[in-house]
Amino acid sequence: MKLITVKNEQELSELTGELLIGWMLSKQTRFNLSITAGTTPEGVYRYLAPKIEKSRAFRHVHYYNFDEIPSTDPAFIGITMRDLNKLYFNPAKIDASQIHHLTSENYAEHDERLKQDGGLDAILLGIGQDSHYCGNLPGATQFEDQTVKVQATGALRTRISGHFDSPDLVPDHWVTMGPRSIMAARKLVLIALGSQKAEAIWHLVKGPVDSKYPASILKLHPDLTVIADEQAMKEVQ
């Protein structure tokens, strides 16, 4: 595990962006990348988008979302893809042929599709205050899971309800790449900002592997880079 402490969001965004650019350009053949939505990577995408848009050197990069909260409205694409379109795909003018959408309809074939495509070269991850990553929340998935459908009941349903304007719109499930699928990627980079992430970072870096803290499993990956600001890293300095 590589730990990189930065001073602020701008430094995190630029460093992570340059790291991803370097990885993308390390191959001339197809490069498969899975990226995260959420607030932490917003600066990363602002940094990346104009560089990717202006260069033909990244046409070999293919993108995969690693989770999706579907909509009960058939005209709505899904929470994750909606956010990725807004944050990155549209500003960077990524061609539709380079984007591969994980959905409720194709999740059972997702791991085989990735295998046929050559596997994921890298994943950009965030981490939640509760140590969740992707759709792997405490109590939602098991460490041995590949890509799965998670039933959104009780507290899990409440967790995703904030994405919707009405309780009637909240779906009864979401889909996510499970721990086994994430660990199969060649490289992982995880980013975090703020003191509210400090406990989750401690469990990732210092704590034992424990299903109560889903991201703790990531410490076993052979090529994990953690980039976080001083506040997020304060418990592991």
UniProtKB/TrEMBL annotation:
Coiled coil: none annotated. It comes from Listeria kieliensis. GO terms for biological process: carbohydrate metabolic process. This is 6-phosphogluconolactonase. Gene3D superfamilies: 3.40.50.1360. InterPro entries: Glc/Gal-6P_isomerase (IPR006148), GlcN6P_deaminase-like (IPR052960), NagB/RpiA_transferase-like (IPR037171). PANTHER family: GLUCOSAMINE-6-PHOSPHATE DEAMINASE-LIKE PROTEIN BT_0258-RELATED, GLUCOSAMINE-6-PHOSPHATE ISOMERASE. Residues 24-219 form the Glucosamine/galactosamine-6-phosphate isomerase domain.
